[in-house]
Predict the structure.
Amino acid sequence: MLFSCNNGQNTAFVSDFSDSQASEIDPNFGIVIHGGAGTILKENMSDSLEQAYRDKLEEAIRVGHEILKAGGDAMEAVTKTINVLEDSPLFNAGKGAVFTHEETNELDASVMDGATLNAGSVAGVTRIKNPIDLAVEVMNNSPHVMLSGEGAEVFAQTRGIKLVDPSYFYTEGRFQSLKRVKQREAAKKKMGFIADDPLIKNSKFGTVGCAALDKNGNLAAGTSTGGMTNKRWNRIGDAPIIGAGTYANNNTCAVSSTGWGEFFIRAMVAHDISALMEYKGLSLQAAAREVIHKKVPALGGDGGIVAIDKDGNVAMEFNTAGMYRAHMNAEGELIVQIYKDE
Ligand code: ASP
């Protein structure tokens, strides 16, 4: 599906034709979020659970929108919005992270600042309550872009980030998902149809992400995830890979991805969308469509993105049955959607 909300007001000042005086207006700021893409079907969802998802998406996006409305940075809006989703057990990030094969939780996150092209990311952390905050610390206060595992947690302590006990990430629902996937995988392995099994495939989604444009015309994006249920060998997905899971460039757009990470890495999804805009002059919608509906499925992958461009146009594009998503524009108009045909 495509979505556009550009009101054409991209400059700080426009003529007020009614009284011929120049009046100040806000640039076309906006914010867009996702809570994961996958086989999200209405028939599998209770009314109360659906409402809980919609309420949490709205709560999160309003946090970021308030920051932008008050003139705050896109990066602050992105991280504070993602914090709300990380703290909710509904989403596969922070508190709701999925379990690894070893019954642990390993979290990945990244951020990118479109004004400077600075970026920060963490992979495989097990004791960081809000991995997106640590990604910001890596970007702002380390000479590196990407830190992983225990080293990232040592760095976190030097930045005053409190570590939590890994048990913080335990949720019964995610643990049961792991058990189901393991059982199914054990059975299917003999038959050799692992990748085709809907239960296995569909237990792998639920990342959160955000892209924002602030009143100064700066873009930022961030993504945070627990990765994929039953992942092993310290597998790292696309979410902490700059250019795959997250990308932002003030000349083009800010993008956050969700989906089958292996394919999103190989397709360099987030950067590809920006590059199609930068080098080929495509609109955000056309670029997102090209990557999500052609390039990723051609490789065999699925998932989606949310993105906002430098003019405030928004794309919420996915090739799965659903994607938890929301958008708020400069006028405060709110859209919260889950399924494909909404
Ligand atoms: N992209 C994430 C990963 O592969 C999963 C997701 O988006 O749900 O780790």
